[in-house]
Amino acid sequence: xGTTFITGAGRGLGLEFARQLCDQGETVIGTVxxxxxxxxxxxxGARALxxxxxxxxxxxxxxxxxxxxxxxxxxxxxxxxxxxxxxxxLDTEEVERVFRINAVxxxxxxxxxxxxxxAGKARKVIQIxxxxxxxxxxxxxxxxAYRMSKAALNMMNRSLSHDLAGRGFTCLVLHPGWVQTxxxxxxxxxTPEQSIAGMLKVIDQSTQSDSGSxxxxxGDRIPW
Length: 224
Ligand SMILES: NC(=O)c1ccc[n+]([C@@H]2O[C@H](COP(=O)([O-])OP(=O)(O)OC[C@H]3O[C@@H](n4cnc5c(N)ncnc54)[C@H](OP(=O)(O)O)[C@@H]3O)[C@@H](O)[C@H]2O)c1
Description:
This protein has one domain (3-216): Rossmann fold (3-Layer(aba) Sandwich). Helices cover 40% and strands 14% of the residues. It contains 7 helices and 7 strands. A 7-stranded parallel beta sheet has the order 3-2-1-4-5-6-7, with helices on both faces. 42% of the residues are buried. Bound molecules: NADP nicotinamide-adenine-dinucleotide phosphate.
């Protein structure tokens, strides 16, 4: 795969992406928000940069620190679930915050690192979405902020796949499954090891003809 850049790599799925890629001998650059979170990421063999994806200046500082270094794959993994609120108690500022981090920030990061990705060979952009962003799959309602933000992320990726098609890019949205992380909780059926092993296989086997698609960690396609 070459060099992979992962947002939100200090814990959870981002850290496990970094761990498995480093174990395979790949080069990994991951981002964390706090200096104190660098250690765990560096311990798996990755390089750590500071970045808050919700902050344009922070992303630009990260781009500057990277200079013209080539990237082969960008994984927009950073995300939040937001406060668990019912329709009646919904706080729209919280909905906007979740939307900014889960949908707007991956667009910001993808655009910001495009020159680095164009300098690389693989040219892959991966959005970590959720099946909760699938309109077809929504049979239970609720989770407004999270569902809306991931549906928007899916649409962003489809546009990106068209805009970058002529430049050899493969842009995918991947659902990790329900996984045991701080976000997924301990009752989730999948371990981070299982989910990431599956997603890395999907990323590795993907070709330009898959660009714009929505896959589960197993490689099965998910309805929109
Ligand atoms: N776990 C699941 O079951 C599941 C299912 C479907 C989809 N997903 C998706 O998978 C991705 C990773 O989730 P996870 O389960 O690993 O969650 P997690 O354990 O809560 O980790 C979230 C990561 O995102 C980072 N992050 C949050 N806001 C950020 C910001 N503004 N700038 C930079 N980084 C930020 C966090 O950094 P800090 O440590 O600094 O907070 C952390 O590294 C998310 O996009 C999530 O929506 C997860």
